[in-house]
Amino acid sequence: MGDLAHALADTLAALGSRRCMCNPGQDVVAVIDALEGSMGTTMFPTEVGAGFAADGYRRVDPRGTDLPVCVVTGKAGAAHLALPLENAFADGVGMLAVTGRCTVELATVSVANVDIGDNTSKGLPEVVNAFELACTPPQGPALVTLDRTAQYGPAEAAPRELTFGHRDPSPRDVEQATDIIASAERPLILLGTGCLSGDVEGLREAVTAIGIPCVTSMPARGVVDEELEQCLGPAGMRGKAAANDALRGADAVLAAGCSLSHLTVPVGALDGTRVFRVDVRGQADADTDAAAFVTATLHAVDEREPWVRADGPLVYEGSFAAPVAVSSIMDTLRPGDCHVYDVGAFSMWACAAGTVREPGSFLMPHNVYPLGYAVPGAIGALMRGTRERIVAVCGDGGFVASLATLPMAAEHDITIVVLDDGGMDIIRQRQVERGLSTLTSHLPRTDPVALARGCGIESVRVDRREDLVAQLEGAGRGALLVHCRLERGPRILGALDGNNFKVRDGSG
Ligand SMILES: Cc1ncc(C[n+]2csc(CCOP(=O)(O)OP(=O)(O)O)c2C)c(N)n1
Fold this sequence. Notes:
Blueprint: E1 2-3, H1 4-15, E2 19-23, H2 29-36, E3 40-43, H3 47-59, E4 69-72, H4 76-80, H5 82-91, E5 95-99, E6 112-117, H6 123-135, E7 141-146, E8 154-155, H7 171-182, E9 187-191, H8 200-209, E10 214-216, E11 231-234, H9 241-249, E12 252-256, E13 274-278, H10 290-300, H11 322-331, E14 337-341, H12 345-351, E15 362-363, H13 374-384, E16 389-395, H14 396-401, H15 406-409, E17 414-420, H16 425-433, H17 448-454, E18 458-462, H18 465-474, E19 480-485
Parallel strand pairs: 2-3, 2-4, 4-5, 5-7, 6-7, 9-10, 9-12, 10-11, 12-13, 14-15, 14-16, 16-17, 17-19, 18-19
Antiparallel strand pairs: 1-8
Helix pairs in contact: 1-2, 1-6, 3-5, 3-13, 7-10, 8-10, 11-12, 11-18
């Protein structure tokens, strides 16, 4: 019999994990050492960086059992991991976190919680169960906690054949959904992140073949090709006007893998609408492949002419401020690329801009909006190896928040765009609206170009839209930082949906 560290590493590798993101400490050094022998293991300078990288790794392609393993030490390490775990839990991103002891209650932001403590012989079968939960939709982080001494205690690997995988849609449920959609005058399909981990290819074919309009949640952007006439794009708070109009106007909605939160469904939009839901946490049909369910339903109904039209492309015009910079970046998004967004006023403009054609090409945390996500998230997405060109987009605030991870970018084919409007604009806008002091939306001055060069990253400064586009078109090999000096952007309206998303003069 070997020790727990090796038994755990062997078990996780046998289940399908290929990557470990870690930040070491005494509680987990032996675990990390064992994982190094079983999978690609990368040290991140902070636990937050490791956690966001694990998130980006899984978010870019949430299928299968290649669950990222995020290992941090107890107390300080585990406390730092609270933010990435909260973010992953809220957005349904699977990962397996292994930590030492901590009084911060991380179990509340995990889909499964295994406290191995010092009982090394009993814990591993439970870890396998937790692993399975973490990668089965609706996914989320699973947490394994151990005592420092446990790493060295005796244990045997406990892999087993995972029953992982979705249940095939039940014919009875499909029939019911088909009846609802077929008898509707204005049917609509609402696709959430649950669809991303299922049979996406089948879904894309079915949506293309049958003209029933569909909308997506923001994080599911790209699950079907937004260039399709019947794809109205993302709905919700920052979504497209046509998508929200369709939600309000539909008389029947098949909602698949979507939580129907206020971020996706405008308040009251579905009142009085017949809604059939599939693959949602807590529902009886929770483990159904949501994508396959929609596919089966679409194949059972007749082809239709769409009853709503998509918006034309959203064009932001004006000076080199956030809407113009962000829409220019979105216009360079090609199949095979992945753009990873941080949070800020600038990112709001990205939500309804551009055309997202494939899943895994537009990553933006949706519920928690954690500042500093983009750079480590992009490094994680790159490690998954499924996308060709990776671009991290952040504001000057997000850039500073992720500085600890910047040196790591030097070793990767990654482009970082820093949209620098000289402060934290989203905060400033709220402060101005409420007549508050704007002192705390200022940032200490930094020079992203000099900082990046100091880390061995090629770096340029641009002041014009054309120069930004030229840099992005040419990017892809090696690390590059593009520092955009922006004018202050127009005010983000307190918007409930894309209808309100119009560029206005002035910055009030
Ligand atoms: C970890 C964390 N801390 C604080 C916040 C609140 N917050 C949201 S956006 C933001 C500032 C963004 O500034 P910047 O990156 O410069 O983008 P801008 O708004 O200027 O476009 C802050 C502090 C957050 N979302 N996450």
